Amino acid sequence: MGKYSIKDLEQLSGVKAHTLRIWEKRYKLLKPERTDTNIRFYNDDELRKLLNVTLLYNKGEKISKVASYDHAQLLTAVKEIEDHHLLNRSRVDDLTMASLVYDSIRFSQLYDQFVEEIGIERTFVEVLLPFLERVGLLWLSEEMNPSQEHLISNLIRQKIIHAIEQLPNNYKKSAILFLPEGEYHELGLLFFSYLFKKHGFHVYYLGASVPIFHANELSSIKDIDIILTYSVLKGKEELESFFTHLKEFKSKEIYFIESKNQTGYLLKYPKNISKLKGYEGVLQLIKP
Question: What is the β-pairing status of strands 33-34 and 40-41?
Fold first, then answer.
C-alpha cells in the first residue's frame, strides 16, 4: 500500500495542497490515516478517488456535487466522460496508479486497452509522453523511485518492440536510427523505429549510447537514405561538436530532432544536417 503526503497528492492531481485541505475539511472528500508518530498520510484508494474527482472537477462539475458521490457513482461519472483531453488525462492517471504500486499486469492491460481504443501512435503521443513526463517529475521529487521507473520503461519498451515485430517487411528505403554515446532515453527512438518501418523503411536500429564511429561505419557499408538521431542531455557545445562528426556520415539525408529546450541554443547546423521538430516532423518526413 502506498503512503502519500498532501504534497504528493498535489503533485499527482495538479490541485494545490491548500485547496485539497479545504475540500477535505468542507466536503469530507479525503480521509487521511496517521502513522505511529501521528503523521497524516493518504493511501492508494484515497489517491485514486482524488484523481477521479479531479477529472470531473476539471470537466466543470461542482466540487460539492462530485464530493457527494459514492464509489460506484464516481466510477460511472468518469466512464461517461467524452472530452478527448480529459480521457487522456484519465489514462495517464491510470498508468500512474499502476506504476506506483508495481502492478505490471495492470499496466500492460491498460496499455493494450488504450492501443485498441485509439491506436499505438495516439497512445504514445497523447498518453505515454505525458505519462513519462509525469514519471520524470515524480522521480525528481522522490515520489517515485528508480526501480518503478525502470520497470515501467522496460514494459513500454517491450510493447513497442512487439508492435514493430508485427509490422510487415515491405522495404522501399533504409534508415539508421541511433542515440549518441551517453544518451539512454531510448523510448522515443523506438517509437520512431516503429513509424519508419510502418512507412516502408528497412530500419537499422542501433539503439542508445552508440559510439559515433560505429554508426558511421554502418553508413559507409550500407546504402542509407536517412539517418535520424537526437539528444536529451547534451548542451550546445557538445551538440555542435557531435554535428561535426555526424555530417561525415554517408547518407542521402541526415536529421537531428531538436527539442523545445534546445531551440534556445540557436544551434549551428552543417549544410547536410536538417533539424526536425518532434513527432510531427518525423511524420512529415516519412509519409509518402
Answer: antiparallel
Gap between the Cα atoms of 98 and 93, Å rounded: 9
Domain ranges of the chain: 1-80, 82-166, 169-286
Q: Residue 204: beta bridge partners?
A: 176
Q: Which set of grid coordinates corresponds to residue 183?
A: 544518451
> Which architecture, in CATH terms, is 82-166?
Orthogonal Bundle (1.10)
Q: Which fold has domain 169-286?
A: Rossmann fold (3.40.50)
**pLDDT (tens digit, 9 = 90+) per residue, 114-144?**
999 999 999 999 999 888 887 776 765 666 7
SS (H, E, C) the chain: CCCECHHHHHHHHCCCHHHHHHHHHHHCCCCCEECCCCCEEECHHHHHHHHHHHHHHHHCCCHHHHHCCCHHHHHHHHHCCCCHHHHHHHHHHHHHHHHHCCCHHHHHHHHHHHHHHHHHHHHHHHHHHHHHHHHHHHHHCCCCCHHHHHHHHHHHHHHHHHHHHHCCCCCCEEEEEEEECCCCCCHHHHHHHHHHHHCCEEEEEEEEEECHHHHHHHHHHCCCCEEEEECCCCCHHHHHHHHHHHCCCCCCEEEEECCHHHHCCCCCCCCCEEEECHHHHHHHHHCC
pLDDT, tens only, 184-231: 889 999 999 999 999 999 999 999 999 999 999 999 999 999 999 999
Q: Which CATH architecture describes the domain 1-80?
A: Orthogonal Bundle (1.10)
